[in-house]
Amino acid sequence: MTSRERWTVYPLLFLSLGMGLRSRLTGTVQCENLVIASRDGKPVARLHATADHRGQLEFITPDGKVTLVEGTSPDGQSGMLEMFGVDGRPLVAIGVNMFGGGLTAWRRDHKLLIAVGHEEQGPAIFAINPRTDQRAVVPFLPVVRKPPATAEPQPSAPAKPDAEKSPQPPTSSP
What we know:
Elements: H1 3-25, E1 33-37, E2 43-49, E3 55-60, E4 66-72, E5 79-84, E6 90-97, E7 100-106, E8 112-119, E9 122-129, E10 134-139
Antiparallel strand pairs: 1-2, 2-3, 3-4, 4-5, 5-6, 6-7, 7-8, 8-9, 9-10
């Protein structure tokens, strides 16, 4: 093949290959599990569908432990965010329920410590003493603000009648 033929054939070859792949490279990419890896091949994040058809994004440490999960809540109706400790247990969770949003924190032994958020009774702090298993609910009371105290108006001096006004000196004309 001559040089002139190569200059004609190869561009046409790449054009036809590009046109053939065009429909496959645009639009929607559909997969069950997408793993993002570092340069050395270790996974750092994973986007996948769970068995119950929920989407999750997981962030992974260099030693393979999941540290953060973001996704759809178990009821499939709202979002959630969970942060995990070194042992793989969740320590903090932020989520939504039918009454509003909430934040939950656990101890390392996975005993619930505190939850702040909305429940059926309204917004509150829910605390649990893990040693005695005593539970306390501290509801948020509505804040009633009093209007700021206004300063009492100072009584003004009564106006003098015209007769009591001091006379003006006469003006002299030249």
